[in-house]
Amino acid sequence: MKRTVNGICIALAIASTAACQKSKEPSQEKTEAVPEEPAQPGQGKVETTKSPPKPGEDDMGDVTIKTTQVSGHVYMLEGRGGNIGVSAGEDGVVMVDDQFAPLAPKILDAVKALGKGEPEYVINTHWHGDHAGGNTAFGAKAAIVAQENVRKRLSAPQKRGEEVVEPMPAPGLPVVTFKENVSLHMNGEEIRVVHFPRGHTDGDSIVFFTGANVVHMGDHFFNGRFPFVDTASGGDPVQYAANVKSVLDQIKDDTKVIPGHGPLATKADLATFHQTLSETIKIVQAARKAKKSLDQVKQAGLPEKYKSWGEGFIKTDAWIETIYSSAK
Ligand SMILES: [Zn+2]
Predict the structure, then answer these.
(1) 131: CA distance to ligand 1 center in Å?
(2) Record: fold of 5-275
(3) Could you tell me the residue ranges of all domains in the chain?
(4) What is the pLDDT of residues 244-259, one digit of tens each?
(5) Distance (Å, rounded) from C-alpha 250 to C-alpha 288?
(6) What is the pLDDT of residues 122-158, one digit of tens each?
(7) CA of 3 to the centre of ligand 1 (A)
(8) How remote is the CA of residue 235 from the centroid of ligand 1, in Å?
(9) Strand partners, 87
């Protein structure tokens, strides 16, 4: 590692709105008690192995990390929780999201197996524990980068349904925050981290690997499934769909798309996802305008062709309720 974490403000080309912060508090072990948005089986090429589980703790010992080469030096790692993106090249390793804390040793092994060392930078697409839960482990060595609302939410207790998620111990908090966007110039390309407001939460970023022609969507993409929109964290289904449309307008036909959940995808898959969002939002909004109650809309359901979209983490009823309840 050529750069120090404290030197990160110099090492990064940071947008004018970005700020640098560094905490010194000692590390604590903490496991996120957040309902998981499960990953679906995807296609992969290389199986990397795991460290032996320590007895007596929820170490997710049954999980293996699957590594898929997406394009050139960009990889997708799947274990449990949100899909991980990795840029591993001559300048070092940048990782997008880090799943759950107990998986950190296995994820680290999988990253090291790429032969470019340990992550120097970890980008959080948003604050949820199935994407940022490994921060406490990775934050000890890597600089964590995230939109400023991610740091705000990780720094304070968060309600998720009936559950309260405790604040992230300091070593897991982002040390580089930004309002709108920030770029990392590494491994021969610009890695653009762009805030998309009020979508899945109020702090989501989408990461564009501009040279490798890959985009990591975070939870702005559940491939083949209705999405979880965290309205309690400032998310909104209509804006979520608009954010997805905005990405579609920016990427190329052959851009590889890493979803937050589900198998590696193409632009066409993302377009299908967007079309499903728009059509189902229209159906529910029209019913609501026609003074149907939420129960009536759920009873009527959605057209048969969307059935499989409700077979993931978010069932059809939950998706209908998200749209109905968010409508103004
Ligand atoms: Zn999420």
Answers:
(1) 7
(2) Metallo-beta-lactamase; Chain A (3.60.15)
(3) 5-275
(4) 999 999 999 999 999 9
(5) 32
(6) 999 999 999 999 999 999 999 999 999 999 999 999 9
(7) 31
(8) 10
(9) 74, 94
